[in-house]
Amino acid sequence: MNLLFNRRSLLAALALLSGIGQSFAAETIKIGVLAPLSGNAAADGQEMVRGVQMAIDELNGAGGVNGYTFDILVGDTKDQNSDAVIAAFERLSGDKQVQVMMTGYASGSNFEIDSMADASMPYLVSANSAQTRDIIKKNPSGYPTVWSLTPSYDAYETGVLPFIEGLAKDGKVSLKTRKLALIGSDNPYSKTIYDGIKKSFTGAGWTITVDEMVPFGQVNDWRAILAKVHSDPPDLIVNTDYLPANEATFLEQFLEAPTQSLLFLQYAPSVPEFVKLTADKSTGVLYNLLGGPILSPKNPRAEEIGDKFKAKWGVESGPYGISLYEQVMMYVDALKKVGKPDDHLAIGKALGETDKETAMGRMIFDPATHLATQGDSYVPLQFYQLRGGDRIMLAPPQYATGSFAPAPWMTK
């Protein structure tokens, strides 16, 4: 605790010395991006940077905003360990033209929001909302510049059960055993969802036949765990390891001797890298998304930004390219309202008053937690099934683009 306190104090001092929050006459606003550009999550990090750069190019091409043009400054958070995140923050905060910072995720615990609050730095984040909530809810007024575009992860923890049982109720699947094989990764994001799903299913009378937590990082061999799955085949397999390469390997090895089970993978299938690694083999995989773009013709905003991203970069955007683009536009809305980029507290207040339709749904922040509001009319929990590399949205119904189909391994 003393080490964390000393780090926060040091960072606050560095922020003051570097002139953060003080007036300056420069005409260029630098947007600081904390992103994992190296390490296991590099695909996400590159996507974050591309989303911000696309927004900046678009704004500068239109002549800027309030007499300001924009530039980007990136800090690599690598594998999201505390030293890497602190070093990245120090690099960005050392530049007095950095007037806002943003990320999809910079660390697993979002501990860096304390440094943002100490420096009165506007900070927008799009992941790890359970950790953000736990930090901010104790003293919301102490984090006036920090806001999360992702709502509470409670829906990740509780939403899978009613979705699966809804498929059974509609006659689309048969739950013969009500058994669940549950696999997780030992990091805050995956473990929180893992624990929530376990509680949800056991509370509904399901039996957990496999209960495995692997160390966070690269996993090349899942066969020992899959052998346990094979020994007592469940109705449903859930793996909350979010790294695309790990989930792709898990799918490949599961398909070597598949059980007649629904396969639900957390987050990774939403990343283009996962589909590239698995191609048609991913057909039938289920996943959900909370706070990501609503990939439906019924949300033209997401399609518009996604199309622009692909045209500019030649690849499909996953959740973070579009989300970071929207973060820039939300900051611009606040800048237009406040006028002065160095009035960070006013910018933070304007961000907190956001009420707009975005690619992720209607964005309104909860003042008690600084999280986006969750719900079908706000930021919904979306369920998808991969089919031939395409993403078919199954729920919520107002955005659905198709219906559930049995996976190939379940029809043989």
The profile of the biggest β sheet is:
6 strands, parallel
Tally of structural domains: 2
How many helices? The count is 14
Low-confidence stretches: 1-26
Rg over CA atoms: 21 Å
Span from first to last CA? Answer: 56 Å
Beta-strand level of the residues, as a percent range?
15-25%
DSSP helix fraction: 25-40%
Instruction: Kindly report the CATH topology of the largest domain.
Output: Rossmann fold
Order of H and E elements: HEHEHEHEHEHHEHEHEHEHEHHHEEEEE
**Shape, principal axes of CA atoms:** globular
In short:
The protein is of the alpha/beta class and 412 residues long. The chain is 40% helix and 20% strand. The strands form four sheets. A six-stranded parallel beta sheet has the order 2-1-3-4-5-13. It has a four-stranded parallel beta sheet with strand order 7-6-8-9, with helices on both faces. Strands 10-14-15 form a three-stranded antiparallel beta sheet, with no helix packed on it.
Question: Could you describe the 3D structure shown?
Answer:
The protein is α/β, with parallel strands linked by helices and 412 residues long. The chain folds into 2 domains: 2-153 and 299-372, Response regulator (Rossmann fold); 159-289 and 382-410, 3-Layer(aba) Sandwich (Rossmann fold). Helix content is 40%, strand content 20%. It is built from 14 helices and 15 strands. The strands form 4 sheets. The chain has a 6-stranded parallel β-sheet with strand order 2-1-3-4-5-13. It has a 4-stranded parallel β-sheet with strand order 7-6-8-9, sandwiched between helices. The model is unreliable at 1-26 (pLDDT under 50).
